[in-house]
Amino acid sequence: MISDSEKIKVLIVDDHQVVRQGLRTFLELQEDVLVVGEAGDGLTAVEMVQQLEPDVILMDLVMPHLDGIAATRQIKASTPDIKVIALTSFTEDEKVFPAIQAGASSYLLKDISPDDLVDAIRAVYLGEARLHPDITRKLMEQVAYPAERTRQAHAEQLTKRELQVIRLVARGWSNHEIAQELVISEKTVKTHISNILSKLHLADRTQLAIYALKNALFNDET
Question: Any idea what the Cα angle at residue 45 is, between residues 71 and 126, rounded to 5°?
């Protein structure tokens, strides 16, 4: 018999009560898992972390008050040892890469089988990463995107403001967050990103974030 102190402590974060209840019901059947709490939004999750000290968080991404990406960023900043599994229905570039950049150890879709989800929780607890096959394929395609030399040549055409936008995109910030940080409108942010993608011959934000990571732009404060 495993004592509670030896179990993997899990916090469930999702704005749908039915989803939370379904996850709790199944997880509580696992001998080595202990559900320590539930949160219906990212802000509540951030507040509960210090009190509950979970090992693993199942984090929905689209929620009121504070979304899962922002919540993950805040949680990992204050308690980096906590493992976060992004558990969502979204495969869009604007969700996948920012979630990983924010600190999510794994990115899984809600169509995952219960057994596979438990396996992922155990793996993440031990320090492994798990990605849904569709997400793995997407990231591999982005990393393998050709014409690197062409992109590097065109990077010289970037303005100082465009470089600022790239760094924030690489950190997983949303258009709204970038607009607030740079004191510009979201429409202007979108225009900057469109211009950057055109200059670098990139297709989307994921490729842009990977480009920034490969060229260490996110560490450059100039």
Answer: 80
